Amino acid sequence: MLVIKDLVKQYGHGEAVLKGLNLSVEGNTVVSIVGASGAGKSTMLRCINRLVEPTSGSITLNGTELVNLKGGELRRARRKIGMVFQGFNLLDRLTVMENVLAGRLGYVNLFQAISRRYPQADIDRAFYLMERVGIAHYANKRADELSGGERQRVGVVRALMQDPEVLLADEPTASLDPRTSEQIMMLLQSLAAELSLPVLINIHNVAQAKTYTERVVGLRHGKMIFDGAPVDFNKEALEAIYGGIEAPDEELAPPPPKEASHGVS
Ligand SMILES: Nc1ncnc2c1ncn2[C@@H]1O[C@H](COP(=O)(O)OP(=O)(O)OP(=O)(O)O)[C@@H](O)[C@H]1O
């Protein structure tokens, strides 16, 4: 369970960009975080994995306080936090398998990491997950030979290789076309259920947030303005979050086709 309490982040001496956030996410809930540009969505996710230092507040993951962890303790805690990025963050010249196995770097010793000698169990897990998301046949291809959607699947598998207790996705579909975006959202949704993993997804597309996640959190100027079910995310909520800032697409995407449980293309 991820529990955020009174989270404040102030960069330098400016106004705080997170102004006392409180959020609990448990089980295999998939939560979307929406809000206008600059609302603090990325800052919030990055505070969780400590890519950004919180100014004050508490973030616990299954009982471990993440704020103020240092050195080895921080590295160990970070292994439990998978992250999926908008720009995929793959090593282009390495193969898909090498990128995927990079998710195990926090677990293997220095010799194994340098020589890229991973335990057989890691390789087996990599194949299982690549198979699951439909990229196993690309295992030996260079990452830069893949399409955007395929690259994001590599990013997802790499994050899952960490054996995470929570998965964070920072605008995972923003670089993808609409159809591929929907496939990635469906994939995150089904993986959360299969792996009993809470997932937090920063997303600009309100329609996709409402369609593919079961809880929507809306931020405005670093404050939580909405936290509820998609069905309750109405025009008032939309106005409260975006009013006077921007007009996101309000149209709900058509219902998703049911995803096959294996080999998503
Ligand atoms: N490293 C930084 N130093 C100073 N200010 C920052 C830094 N990172 C973000 N900010 C500021 O913090 C505020 C929140 O930014 P953040 O990226 O968290 O918002 P966001 O909701 O994720 O926006 P977007 O949807 O555009 O990614 C913005 O005003 C931004 O300029």
TrEMBL record:
Domain ABC transporter residues, every copy: 2-246
A Pfam family hit: ABC_tran
Bilayer disposition of the protein: Peripheral membrane protein
Localization, UniProt: Cell inner membrane
Main location: membrane
Highest taxon above the source species: Bacteria
Gene3D superfamilies tied to this protein: P-loop containing nucleotide triphosphate hydrolases
Keyword tRNA-binding assigned: no
PANTHER family for this protein: AMINO ACID IMPORT ATP-BINDING PROTEIN, PHOSPHONATES IMPORT ATP-BINDING PROTEIN PHNC
Name under which the protein is recorded: Phosphonate ABC transporter ATP-binding protein
